[in-house]
Amino acid sequence: MDSNSIKENIRVIRESLHITQQEMADLMNWSRTAYRQFETGKTELISKHLEDFARICNVSVEECLLGYAPLSREEMTAREQNPDNEYVKLRFKEMEDRISALQEELKIKNESLKTLTDINNRLVNQLGNFH
User: Fold this and answer.
1) Which domains does the chain carry?
2) What pLDDT sits at residue 78?
């Protein structure tokens, strides 16, 4: 796993909880700038503060690192005993939810891009009218 995936996992976890960077900074007793540097990996302190972030978000450090919650011993045992059990359905549902969230994020970004493109086109037309 690389630092980019860890940064992405941290952002996704925070956003899934509907917490802004400022709110997370407040929870960690940091400035927003310091938190933004933590989330974007511009600081060497990710490993030092990842445990605090995980605790605040009620997730494991492993989930922050991997991007998903690792199996507990009970889940591993249940999976070994019955691979077609509820665990598979649960993980599938989690993946569907993650895909839906990413699709929604993509939709929002596409709408923003369309708006910016429209603004850019209007500005170009206005500049063309001055010549």
Assistant:
1) 1-70 (1.10.260.40), 71-131 (no CATH)
2) 67
